[in-house]
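Let's practice the habit of predicting before peeking. Look at the sequence and jot down your guess about where helices and strands might fall. Then scroll down.
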Amino acid sequence: MTTKTLAIVAILLWVASAAFVGYKIMTGSTVTSEDGREAIQLTTAERNLVLGEMRALLAAVQEIVAAVNADDMNAVKESAHRVGMAEVGSTPPGLVLKLPMEFKTLGFSTHEGFDEVALAAEIGAEAVLESLEANLSKCVACHSAYRLSE
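Done guessing? Here is the structure:
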């Protein structure tokens, strides 16, 4: 084989690999489940990681509501920031490839929404609850569209 042929083969393999990774980034690893939602196929450890993150989001919602009731806007900020965009960087790249684009978009938007809840604490309790309500609609949309399967 000539150098030119090897270079062409290498380029074609690179393009094919890049196309496959791009496809996986967009579609993830899903099948349609019996309840009509998209079932995201994960390992047990990956599923536990995502479910743990969701429990942390729910716990933050409870803490935020309690802090609003106590008129403690500093606690609102702390709880909201803890699950904001700062948390996103800890997601393993292999897991990110398995998640469909809409799921990732909703997830990032939800984390950004918690940062917005923290900013709303500067305005007051009513602004916090309005921001939290808008953010929770993303949780409902995601849970309506997806489930996690092993």
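How did you do? The first strand starts at residue 30 and ends at 32.
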